[in-house]
């Protein structure tokens, strides 16, 4: 709440007044007196030259007074500081999107696969990586084919509607190898899948250019890795794209390995067999990779992005779990790695040294285990935990203190945090996409579909969402703020 107040439009419009008082023309003189902004004279810069004082007692007295009262900042401006542009006067884009002000979503669909879409991700807001359950990897390109300002300030544009009027498209999702435009038919059944507060925009033949795919797109898809272990049921923690978008990391294979594949041709770069059982999860931050396994251990690896390879041996092995490691989250900035296990615990280690910090148990009764299904670390160090056994969301501080919890009616399949870690987007087994406030799990927006949400991805600085469904459809949603 304090952060919202400090980042509000009201504060922005009065920021110049604060500058005038602290650094500006109201710091000294008549304007300071008028503004009741006068302090003890020794606090001001150049009020006294201590070097010219010869009396030791007087000098010590003045130094103590300055030390006691403190010092006023240097005066930087002698004229009123200009007022900041309002949101309307600028480009109309807030630093962070406020989902509480959102009324609807423009949504487009395309059948990207006939298999469930297990993973969607993008590091650059231009390339979109899509993996289905048949292990086919497709790469899409996001294009702004018309005026980008018109797209970003979308409330000033006419939305695509159910009639056949010709409207200039503002956003495009293209296959990266596109040469031929393919007409995409809109599924009319999606018309009834939204709540009342949601607008849906079908794709007619005139707007087919919004989605371009090569005619032989099935032949151009690339198959990654080998068969997944049959006993593995949750795949949201099994895939990652490196920062340079050239390496695709995957795990969950029957041969107890995790694999590095080239995103351009799907060729295997490396297959690392270190764990003694199936690698059940992995996570990456920069050039640090962390893997978790059914053998109860967590391994930290150094990734050489130039060579596109992982060091053959891990830099650290982390212990502490009594059962399968089910999920991992790490932050190089916070220098911590958090691992969740089926034994009901989350263990925090120092990422650099491997030193054990703390264990968090979901159940207060240690004889009753609540397995950890999913983990997420916010930019502020909050630890977000979900267990599909009791279908409860929990938020912990970095010190392991429970901040809040919320029971939900459905099983979460995938989730994403916004860049400012203010909102949590969750996709559920029942086909619901919810937007929650992270600090208290209050529901902000909800969208219902008739297919299980298998994967989520936020793109375009959180202004748009991509979601993969069990039936192979890909949703591209544009939030209208």
Alpha-carbon Rg, integer: 27 Å
The overall strand count is 31
In CATH, the topology of the largest domain is named Methylamine Dehydrogenase, Chain H
Which word captures the global form?
elongated
Distance between the termini: 20 Å
CATH architecture of the largest domain: 7 Propeller
Overall mean pLDDT stands at 80
Number of separate domains: 2
The CATH H-level homologous superfamily of the largest domain: YVTN repeat-like/Quinoprotein amine dehydrogenase
- Output the structural class: mainly beta
Bin the strand percentage: 25-35%
Helical fraction equals under 10%
Q: What do these coordinates show?
A:
The structure is a single chain. With 481 residues, the protein is mainly beta. It has 2 domains: 2-69, no CATH class; 99-142 and 214-480, YVTN repeat-like/Quinoprotein amine dehydrogenase (Methylamine Dehydrogenase, Chain H). The protein has helices at residues 2-6, 9-13, 15-22, 29-34, 56-69, 148-152, 217-220; strands at 104-111, 117-121, 127-132, 136-143, 172-175, 211-212, 222-223, 239-241, 247-250, 258-262, 268-272, 279-285, 288-293, 298-304, 309-310, 316-318, 325-331, 336-341, 345-350, 356-361, 374-377, 383-387, 392-396, 402-407, 412-417, 423-428, 432-437, 443-448, 453-459, 464-469, 473-480. Strands 2, 3, 4, 5, 6 and 7 form a 6-stranded mixed sheet that branches. A hairpin with a 4-residue loop joins β13 (288-293) and β14 (298-304). It is elongated, with a radius of gyration of 27 Å. Residues 144-219 have low confidence and may be disordered.
